[in-house]
UniProtKB/TrEMBL annotation:
It comes from Tessaracoccus aquimaris. It comes from the Bacteria. This is Cobyrinic acid a,c-diamide synthase. Residues 1-43 are annotated as: Disordered.
Amino acid sequence: MAKRASLPGASELFRPTKRVPTPEPPAATPEPAAVDAQPGASGRIRHDHKITVYFSEDELLALEDANLDLRRAHGIRVDRGRIVRIAVAEALADLAERGAESRLVNELRQQ
């Protein structure tokens, strides 16, 4: 049986040659008072929780049309999830502000 040559591993071939300084974390900024803050859409952040929402074909097509209209007419590139998060935030803010007279309550009463 032929003897195999001993070759270096990846850690020997690609070891760091100089130390890279680790950046210091940014200073903590005080958070604004949450008492007066209305719930709003979270925007472009990493989300920790997920829900599944089912749409009818017509609702999904309307959402896609709105997305295309935002892109075409307003130059806003956004995903469907962000549109839905903003719509939910708006509905919840309206409910908190107007209560029984909110559009959400009126729509749910009509169904």
